[in-house]
Amino acid sequence: MIGAPYFKKMTIHLENGNKIVINAPKVSDRNKYIQRVKLNGVEYNKTTLSHFDLIRGATLDFEMGPKPSKWGTGEEALPPSITDPATDGSSLLPRPMRDLTDRSEGGGDARELFDNSSDTRVTFDTASPRLNWRFAEGPEKVRMYTLTSGDGSPAEDPKSWVLKGSRDGRNWTVLDERSGESFKWRRQTRAFEVKHPGKYSYYMLEINENNGAGSTTLAEVELLGYDDVNRFFGAVDQLIRDYKQSGELKEPLAKQLSRSLEQAGRQEQKGRTEQAVKHMEDFLKHLNNQGMKGRATDRARKKLAAEAHALIIALRR
Ligand SMILES: [Ca+2]
Ligand SMILES: [Ca+2]
C-alpha cells in the first residue's frame, strides 16, 4: 500500500541488492497530501505496488501539497483482493509453505508420524532410530521441518539428529544437524529451518541420541516447503488451453504466450532462473500488448497475468 511519505528522501536496500528510492522533496507538516506519484518516472495512480514492481528496485517520486487531491481515487486505484477471485483454490495468494508429506504416502511403517495428529505416535525400540521418507512423485525442496514430541516420558525425546537428503536413496547429503535439543512439554511441535536445502526424493532423519531412554517416541513429523515450480508452469499452461478452448483467448496471442512459457520452462530446466524470468516478462508484455487487445477477454488477461506473476515469484525463490 502507498501512504504519504514522512521524509524528503528515503532509500530501502533490498536483500537482492536492488534498492527502492522514495523522493518527496516538498513534504512538510503542511504539504501532507499526495498530489501525484511517479513510479520509475511514469505517472502512477494506483494505491498499491506489486511485489514484482518492488523486487526489481524502483524509484517513487511523490509530489506533495497542502490539499487532498484526486490521486488514488479512481476505481482502478483500489487495492486488489489478496485472495484470487477464482474459487477453485488453484491460485490463492499468498502461498505459504506447506507440509509436502500431506500430498502423498511415503512414510512406510511410520504412518502415524505423518497422519496430522499429535494424538498418534510411533515408538522405536532404540535410542537412535532412523526415519525415512520418499517423495514418490519426484524430488521436493524441504525448507523447514517440524518434530512433535510424544506424550510419554521426556527421556524418549530425540536430542541430537541429522537430516539427510538423497536423489537415489544411496548417496546421502547432510542438510541439517542439531544437538542438545529438548522439548519443553508433551506433544510440543518445534520447527527447524533446513540449513542446506536442496531438491531430493529421499529424506532421512537420523536420530543419534535421545534423552536417555532405551526407546524413542515422536508424535508427528512434517517436511515443509513451497509448491514445486513445475506446478506453476502447469497451471499457466492449463489456463492457456482452457481459455483457448472457451474462446476467451485467440491466436496469435495464444501462440505467443505458449512460446514464452515454453522458453521459460526450458531455461528453468537448465537452471537459468534469470533467463526464465525474462521469458515470463515477455509473456506479460505479449499479454498487455495493445495491438492484441481483442485477442483475450479481460477476465482471461487478469487471470493469466496473476498466474504469470505467481510463477515469476516461484522462480525467484
Ligand atoms: Ca502432515
Ligand atoms: Ca501422528
Features:
317 residues, Jelly Rolls, 16 strands, binds calcium ion
Short description:
24% of the residues lie in helices and 27% in strands. With 317 residues, it is an alpha+beta fold. One calcium ion binds next to loops.
Summarize the structure in words.
With 317 residues, the protein is α+β, with helices and mostly antiparallel strands. The chain folds into three domains: 69 residues, GH92 mannosidase domain (GH92 mannosidase fold), CATH 3.30.2080.10; 128 residues, Galactose-binding domain-like (Jelly Rolls); 88 residues. Helix content is 24%, strand content 27%. The protein is built from five helices and 16 strands. The strands form four sheets. It has a five-stranded mixed β-sheet with strand order 1-2-5-3-4. Strand 1 and strand 2 form a beta hairpin. Helix 4 runs antiparallel to helix 5. The radius of gyration is 25 Å and the shape is globular. About 4% of the residues have low confidence. Bound molecules: calcium ion (2 copies). The site of one calcium ion has 6 residues, from loops.
